[in-house]
Structure prediction request, 439 residues.
Amino acid sequence: MALLCSCILMAAMGLVALAVPHPRSSALHHLTKQLLGQYRKEVRPVHNWTEATTVYLDLSVHAVLDVDVQNQKLKTSVWYHEVWNDEFLSWNSSMFDEIREISLPLSAIWAPDIIINEFMDIERSPDLPYVYVNSSGAIRNSKPIQVVSACSLQTYAFPFDIQNCSLTFNSILHTVEDIDLSFLRNREDIRYHKKAFLNDSEWQLLSVTSAYSILQSGAGDFAQIQFNVVIRRRPLAYVVSLLIPSIFLMLVDLGSFYLPPNCRARIVFKTSVLVGYTVFRVNMSDEVPRTAGSTSLIGVFFTICMALLVLSLSKSILLIKFLHDERRGGREQPLSCLRRDSEADGSLTCPSTRATCAEATESPVCQEHQVQAGTLKEVWLQLRSINNHLQARDKVYQQEVKWLALLYRFDQLLFQSYLVVLGLYTLTLCSLWALWNGL
Prediction:
């Protein structure tokens, strides 16, 4: 009885083992073994070597991570898709349980050597070791890539700048006779595809234009596809933090032109404005992009505004200095003239008076005449000194009037220059903003 039970138990276990499929007996295992058993990944997968392998490319921009204007680099996150046909990896799906698509290791099959010409850094992308292969031999390879590419970044219209950076794909070794390139999607669909783009960054994606061309070189003709990524900056943050405070400071400096040119408080006022503008420029220097080849329009405006501030302050300082020198010279001149007049009159009148008095020192009439002559002479000297002093003051006043008239004209010229610069800059910014909104 025990022997019978043992036999029944062993038979049941055998039936269970037969009911469970072995991995090596599955259709997927047989298909993979058949495809990769005699596969050579070193050989381009075509039966006729004269036929070119066409690789279909597609690109979707996901985000703009960084725009390095100083080093002329653009860092973007893109989804890259490539599809090609492998004639050695096709099968009849009816013979393998209707399996129409499988995943194979990318390292086990042939893959095209497509690179990006503008690469400046190591490609950063997650390691996706598998690709999809369908029954007709079409291989689909999709992966996200962080691309650090070289780009000619123009900052003249900052913060209303629009950048156009290209990503050029081509084979590094195979000519167009071996590997040809084509578009996976319609070019218009690629151009206006923005669903995958993150719009919460500083940059906004306008379009992704594409073009196919043949690169001719000494090594042969190479097929290449160029994607032009067109982006524009959102300027609102820079308008609030840079443009509006700068315009306010210039308007405050315009108010100083209503102070008299010879007022010392005007120098203090302009110095305060200049110091404030300098501190503003230093604090905001990191916000304005700088390149060795070009200067942004806002940088030119800041430089012109500071030059006008320095020129206006220098003019006020020179005016106060000239007026001070003229007044000091006018005060010293009457005293010197008075001393010269006294000495000259003394030298002319004293000899005759002494001679007359020497002849008649004891005459009462002579003594009375001498007293009257001395009194008149003193009055005449005082009147003459007063006249000279008034004439000197009049000359100083006339010089002040001339300087003030000249400085008033210079003030008007500077004031008009301020208005012209502010007007032109405002008109330019409005035009750039209108063009920015029109795109």
